[in-house]
Amino acid sequence: MTRTVRTLTTGLALAAGLGIAAPVAAMDKEITIGHLTYHTGEFGAFGPFFDGVTEMVLSKINQDPPLGMTMRAIHQDIGTVGEARAARKLVDSDGVQILLNPAHSYLSYREFMLETVAENNLPLMPSVHGGAIEGAIGGVSNEPIFRGSPLDTANGVAGMNHAKEVGKGSVGEIATEVAGSQLQKDAALAAAGALGLEVLGDFDIEAGQGNYRSVVSRVNRLAPDAVIAFTSPNVGGSLVKNAAESGASWYIVGSGEWQETEFYDTATVSALNQHEAVVFAANAHAENDAWAPFEAFATASEWAEDIGDVSNSYVIQYFDLLVSTALAIEKAGELNTESWTQAMYDITGGEGEVVYTYADGLAALRAGKDINYDGVTGSMEYTNTGVVSGLFGIFTWDEGNLSQVAIVDGDRVLEIDAMSASCAVTISAGWPWAGLRTFQREFNVNSEPAT
Fold first, then answer.
1. Fewest CB within 10 angstroms: 118, 135, 229, 374, which?
2. d(Cα 381, Cα 397) in Å, to the nearest integer?
3. Domain 2-149+287-379 and domain 152-284+391-443 have a common topology
């Protein structure tokens, strides 16, 4: 399923209304974004949400687009055809200049992308879901992957750290058999050892089962102090409900996907209330000058109903990643992977003027200034493989609304992961931001892709 949704061209309409000639590039050129997303399959319920977030951000950018080139999204379902086939279609048939969201299955079409970039110096590859890609991949001109979120392993460590902080001594782990969930589970297992938590059991489950009563029974027999789970929203909701039906009252720490209403609706209010607690680790927004203008715009946008809570970590990550992508295009002055890659580092780090909004960043760049974009997710500084840091929180559902109940020290998360992973795990599974940076510095890892 492919869905092309209109974008706003407010800047061009305004220019026409005032009798001002729009730039030639703005009138006859656009930047096409191939958005790898879900409308079918296990994560199909995310489709309208991810599409709405993308369109909301583009509507902000297109008020004054980079280089005068309107940005348009093609929303491509990957739930049925798979990520690799969808990516090839967007690049070969649709000719997109930006491929948004290479993720869990990237390695299956990596060779194709490397060949395409080498031949065309496009597409750019920002990815909100790139935390599932190995941390040693990306951030270079011939593989221009820049992530909008920390590596998936970081959330696994954050959840385990929270269990320790609330006084739990033993845990059971459950994860679906998908790459992102497995990365989080492995990182959490390693973190448990570093934190002195006893792991009583480690269970892998298949997505799409009718129920999860079997694994619930096995966990009940072990009687852990806490259950750590990494699943999609519907699977997580079913686990919570099945556990409550068994008469259990667990302390459950879930994954960031549980922010979605599908989890809340599947779990049911009565089941959530029966458990000791149901919380989940996710990225939190920064308390800075970026938040108020972002919140006002996002909640007033025509996509607000599809988006829901604008503090959702996916919303703020999409926003910052697409805004920084657009600012880097303006900084580069052209559309190719070499100049854009350098510009991504330039506009998110360094000693430039700190800016908190797209408009301020654009104005500063056009005035010939260097900038340092700090968005709603906080600092956007990248490692030399395109891995970004993040802020972590512990959330729960409170009468149908997301509520942040605790803050996780991001530095502590990175420290724990660095303690609990070996160099071999670093290369094969990926570390969060600080651990990866330290490894690359001390061991002189070459981030360029293998040929």
1. 118
2. 31
3. yes
Q: Which residues contact 167 (CB under 8 A, 6 or more apart)?
A: none
DSSP 449: P
Which residues, in sequence order, are CB contacts of 269 under 8 Å at separation 6+? Answer: none
Q: Give me the residue spans of the domains in the chain.
A: 2-149+287-379, 152-284+391-443
Please report which helix (H) or strand (E) contains residue 146, including its range: strand 145-147
Q: For the domain 2-149+287-379, what is the CATH code?
A: 3.40.50.2300
3-state secondary structure of 435: helix
Residues 6+ apart with CB under 8 A from 46: 37, 38, 260
**pTM for this predicted structure:** 0.78
Fold of 152-284+391-443: Rossmann fold (3.40.50)
Q: What pLDDT is attached to residue 180?
A: 80
Which residue spans within 148-291 are E strands per DSSP?
Answer: 170-176, 198-205, 226-230, 251-254, 277-283
Range 27-59 burial, b when 16+ CB lie within 10 A, else e: eeebbbbbbbbbbebbbbbbbbbbbbbbbbbbb
Write the DSSP symbol of residue 441.
Answer: H
**Count of helices and strands (H, E) across the chain:** 19, 16
Q: Hey, which residues does 254 pair with through a beta bridge?
A: 280
Residues in contact with 224: Cβ distance below 8 Å, sequence separation at least 6, in sequence order: 168, 170, 171, 172, 200, 201
Say if residues 83 and 127 touch (Cβ distance below 8 Å).
Answer: no
Give the Cβ contact number of residue 296 at 10 Å.
11
pLDDT of 421: 55
Strand pairing partners for 398?
401
Q: How far apart are CA 434 and CA 385, in angstroms?
A: 12
Tell me the Ramachandran region of residue 369: left when phi exceeds 0, alpha when psi lies from -120 to 50, beta otherwise: beta
Angle between helices 152-165 and 179-195 (to 10 degrees): 40
Q: What is the DSSP string of 73-122?
A: EEEEE-TTT-HHHHHHIIIIIS--SEEE---TTGGGTHHHHHHHHHHHS-
Q: What is the mean pLDDT of each run of 10 residues along the chain (451 residues)?
A: 41 34 48 96 86 98 98 96 97 98 95 98 96 91 95 88 96 91 91 94 91 97 97 95 98 93 95 97 92 97 93 95 98 97 94 96 98 94 89 92 86 74 36 32 33 29
DSSP letters of 16-64?
Answer: HHTTPPPPHHHHH-EEEEEEEE-SSSTTGGGHHHHHHHHHHHHHHHTTS
Residue indicated by tokens 């709405």: 52
